[in-house]
Design brief:
heterodimer, A: 625 residues, alpha/beta, seven-stranded mixed β-sheet, six-stranded mixed β-sheet, globular, B: 343 residues, three-stranded antiparallel β-sheet, 11 helices
């Protein structure tokens, strides 16, 4: 075999079966390197030109006790030759590296699906820890699936026996052996991963690199040479039909970071990103902290409140203040966001939502901070809320947030979630030279200046950098007189200022695109209205049902406050509106409140994204009524 | 940095805004605002390059009365907001103003961190040992047993010392002054401004309505010579109406004690000489309390180091030097990419 195992034996190639799309889930202990395995497989899948969507699903604990169910880490990847919009409903293939990984994941595997297990880890102690009373590989309880037990532990140790690593480090190569086997199964090249291993360990830990590469190749060779049970074979998947262009894979975290950097450049501003570590939002701080050469300043504050405070201070001083957190942290920031509303300063707040309330499930996804974003502050305090619908979409959403924040002198909340933040998908990289700048014009003219005088069209007040001669002024959280900004408790003035703060945000509806229909007719029996990361499953479900001739349409909201001007009129053209959300019906109540249209919710709060089938079932139920 | 204009060009009036002051008649804050304006005129930074950031409370109304840039923010968060201002524009002269409740209670955490980070801010804590704006509740600096609407039988918790807290947090400039001391305060403020890094100044401020006379045991002009110790770098720690009382180390108890020069064989050589770079001595001075000791006034500690925003800026400049000139396209195409050719 060749060094990268790519030119497999002719015999094996002949036997490859062509398939359109597959869902594979890797699962094991949180210390097994599952996320790394999945990430590497996603990378080589992208290189093979297929479309893909990933779903990393890991515990909050860094190293949970070995072998426990709550320590199971999983990575699902859905890939294929046609458009892939979700990380997949049910795995066709489950790789379980221990009994806990099997018991936690087996229920979700397709009936008749392939389950590859490391039989070497199915020892009494591990079985007990997972909660098995007898060995499922022997007691017939898995007969609904095709079980392929392989002693991966032993084979891995054998494959690294010629290297200098000890037994413990040798066993840690299990994930690479597994990756080798799955790479054989789906015709993936090994060189990108072996190069990556060389790069990561080659210099400092050459033996570790050698052992991992040996295990990777051994897993691949096993696929080529071992006798496979019935139905286990190599597969071929054609490259997906992508528009021409330069592509990369991108997570929501990366796309948000790059969108913010891009937005700041288009606005002619320096980014000052102030944050406090919190799962799953810290990634944004990490990505931006490495972009210093792009004049990005990051500040890890002492707490969430200091983080938003420093971001507001940065905006006050003429930079783009950005803060980022997840629900519990956003809750802490609310008073300060009110200050930015009152003083009318631009501010970007990124909320990577997670399951709650309180600490909830830090690594699990949810969309339950919609009320918090739209309403969650003291007093009447409107701001802009926009939501990203996928990893790649986060890029445009971040740019749009910067545009609106700086043009209207307002805080903008970007809603993302755990799923979008972590999931990777291919992205056609836009040409930055084609972006339209929206350069901020700081006020320098002293003639006629008042700190709260407003632009006639946008109602935005002027942005003045401290340091500007002749424009010294004071702002603050106390209510201020309409133009001068001087402290005012005047009754009529407070009414007028409150009205104006609302009018300013409502007026943004004139500056955002009208709501379009994602797929389907613009009137009819049923519209499925979504926002955020439900985009993938709703698109797929509506697509399937439309191909079956069902009259159903998909509408997906980016702008949540203000909403597009035509949304109410558009929704009214449907008999029914179904809103699937990963909360207890938050968008449903907002839409019902704004437009008085009959809206039904489809609720899911399991910490996992919707499956396509769940949404299809929901649509069927409404169509049949 | 700002060009320093000569003192003749600016006077206290240039720093006075057109807003009517809304503090209670007789409040110590009037004297402080006067001293601050005088100090700023002497420092000579143009008004447009000066920013006052405050939290909430009586003291926090301060920015409205200054003809500079000003930001009256939310309770306790002024140090955080000022950090953002300084990160955005290190060339600005940023002053933070707050009271004991603002900076040591609700905002204690931010005070701690802004000091340890050494952000180049001039932080003025007006300590009146009471909550004024909420009508007289006891504060974290109130002495034990303080009678207040929320402690009708007297407060039972122990007060925090602002200067000991600041030193413990790692502040590199810690000073004290008294509201009514119009001669002393501008000098301390000028020292605070000259220090690059976080400068922490505790100003004892009399609340005439809710805590009148809180500092009379050492702040009264009449008895000041015997109750205050004005420290000066390189000078012996001498005080008293007759100029013969001094501070020395009692090695038996490892603490300071008051001695009288010329009595019991004590000479001037026994008296400690103030070294403002000595953190241990600063800690001792901060803890001296009336009536056993005089209260130390002046610059207790000053030992500069690189400021936070300067270090942050330095890393960014280093990164820019090492990396190629940034283009958005190079950012978006960093890492692995592949090309799909036209069909």
């Amino acid at each position: 075999m060749s060094s990268d195992g790519n030119t497999a034996l002719k015999l094996a190639e002949v036997r490859r079966e062509e398939v359109d799309e597959v869902v594979v889930r890797f699962a094991g202990d949180s210390g097994d390197g599952i996320q790394l395995t999945g990430g590497r497989f996603a990378e080589t899948t992208a290189i093979a030109g297929q479309d893909l969507e990933t779903f990393p699903d890991f515990p909050a604990e860094i190293r949970a006790p070995i072998g426990t169910t709550y320590g199971v880490s999983a990575f699902q990847i859905h890939f294929g030759s046609s458009a892939i919009l979700t990380s997949g409903d049910a795995p066709d293939v489950l790789v379980a590296l221990n009994p806990a990984a099997l018991i936690v994941n087996i229920e979700e595997v397709k009936l008749g699906g392939l389950v590859i297990v490391d039989s070497g880890s199915f020892k009494d102690k591990n079985l007990r820890k997972a909660g098995y009373e007898s060995n499922p590989l022997e007691d017939g309880s898995l007969e609904k699936y095709r079980i392929f037990p392989i002693d991966i532990s032993r084979l891995t140790l054998e494959s690294v026996s010629h290297t200098e690593v000890n037994k413990r480090d040798g066993l840690r190569c299990k994930n690479m052996w597994t990756l080798g086997l799955i790479s054989w199964m789906y015709d993936r090249r090994l060189t990108p991963t072996s190069d990556w291993l060389e790069g990561k360990f080659g210099k400092k830990l050459p033996e570790v690199a050698k052992a991992n590469i040996a295990a990777l190749k051994a897993g691949h060779a096993f696929g080529e040479t071992a006798e496979m049970p019935d139905g286990v074979r190599g597969f071929t998947i054609q490259p997906a039909d992508f528009e021409p262009g330069i592509y990369r894979t991108v997570t929501g975290t990366e796309a948000t970071a790059w969108g913010l950097v891009t937005g700041a450049q288009l606005a002619g501003l320096k980014i000052i990103m102030c944050s406090y570590p919190i799962t799953p939002a810290s990634g944004l701080l990490h990505v931006l902290a490495r972009l210093k050469s792009y004049d990005v300043t990051t500040f890890q504050a002492e707490d969430e409140i200091a983080a938003v405070g420093a971001a507001i201070g940065a905006s006050y001083a003429g930079s783009l203040g950005v803060t980022s957190s997840s629900g519990p942290g956003i809750a802490l920031k609310t008073e300060a966001i009110g200050l930015a509303i009152a003083t009318e300063l631009p501010l970007i707040v990124v909320n990577t939502q997670r399951a709650g309330p309180s600490t909830g499930m830090p690594t699990k996804t949810e969309q339950s901070d919609l009320y918090l974003a739209v309403y969650g502050r003291n007093a009447d305090s409107p701001l802009v809320v926009i939501a990203a619908h996928s990893s790649a979409d986060s890029f445009e959403v971040a740019i749009e947030a910067v545009r609106l924040a700086t043009k209207y002198m307002t805080p903008v909340i970007i809603l993302s979630d755990t799923y979008i933040a972590n999931a990777a998908e291919p992205w056609r990289v836009p040409d930055a030279d084609h972006f339209k700048p929206f350069k901020v014009g700081f006020r320098t003219e002293t003639e006629g200046f008042q700190p709260f005088m407003r632009d006639g069209a946008t109602l935005a007040r002027p942005w003045v950098k401290p340091g500007t001669l002749g424009l010294e002024h004071r702002i603050g959280g106390l209510e201020r007189a309409y133009d001068s900004g001087n402290v005012s408790y005047d009754a009529e003035n407070h009414q007028r200022m409150t009205n104006t703060r609302f009018k300013k945000i409502e007026g943004i509806a004139d500056d955002i695109p009208l709501q379009t229909v994602e797929s389907g007719a613009d009137s009819g029996q049923l519209a499925v209205l979504g926002w955020g990361s439900t985009y993938g499953p709703i698109s797929s479900a509506v697509g399937h049902l439309r191909s079956e001739g069902k009259a159903v349409s998909h509408i997906h909201l980016r702008y949540i406050n203000p909403m597009p001007k035509n949304l109410g009129e558009l929704l009214a053209r449907f008999d029914k509106v179904l809103v699937p959300e990963m909360n207890m019906g938050q968008l449903s109540t907002i839409v019902r409140d704004r437009f008085m249209v009959p809206v039904e919710g489809l609720r899911k709060v399991t910490g996992k994204p919707f499956r396509i089938a769940e949404i299809e079932d929901g649509i069927h139920a409404r169509l049949e009524k | 940095m700002n060009d320093i204009v000569t003192a003749e060009e600016l006077n206290a009036k240039d720093f006075t805004s057109d807003q009517e002051i809304r503090w209670c008649p007789g409040c110590g804050d009037f004297a402080i605002v006067k001293s601050v304006r005088k100090a700023l005129a002497e420092i000579g930074t143009p008004t447009e390059n000066v920013v006052f950031v405050s939290g909430i409370g009586c003291a926090a109304r301060f920015p409205y009365y200054m003809a500079t840039y000003g930001f009256h923010t939310i309770h306790g968060r002024a140090p955080a907001i000022a950090t953002g201002v300084k990160l955005a524009n290190p060339d600005l002269d940023v002053w933070v103003v707050g009271g004991d409740g603002d900076m040591l209670s609700i905002g204690g955490n931010h005070t701690l961190h802004v000091l340890r980070r050494n952000v180049d801010l001039n932080i003025l804590l007006f300590n009146n040992e009471i909550y004024g704006l909420t009508k007289g509740q006891y504060s974290p600096t109130s002495r034990e047993g303080t009678l207040s609407p929320s402690t009708p039988m007297g407060s039972v918790d122990h007060p925090v010392s602002a200067t000991s807290f600041a030193l413990g947090a790692g502040a590199r400039f810690v000073a004290r002054s008294i509201d009514t001391d119009q001669k002393h305060m501008p000098e301390v403020l000028k020292r605070a401004h000259a220090h690059k890094g976080a400068s922490f100044v505790e100003i004892f401020q009399n609340c005439i309505v809710y805590n009148d006379g809180a500092f009379s045991d050492f702040a009264e002009k009449r008895t000041a010579p015997d109750t205050q110790l004005h420290v000066e770098h390189g000078q012996p720690l001498i005080f008293g109406a007759d100029g013969n009382k001094g501070i020395r180390i009692n090695h038996d108890i490892l603490d300071l004690e008051v001695v009288t020069v010329g009595e019991n064989g004590v000479t001037l050589d026994d008296v400690l000489v103030h070294d403002e770079t000595n953190r241990t001595l600063a800690g001792w001075l901060a803890r001296m309390e009336a009536p056993e000791f005089p209260v130390a006034i002046g610059v207790l500690y000053c030992d500069p180091a690189e400021s936070y925003e300067a270090a942050v800026r330095r890393q960014i400049e280093d990164a820019k030097k090492k990396a190629p000139p940034p283009s958005l396209n190079s950012l978006l195409q960093s890492g692995h990419t592949w090309t799909v050719e036209p069909h």
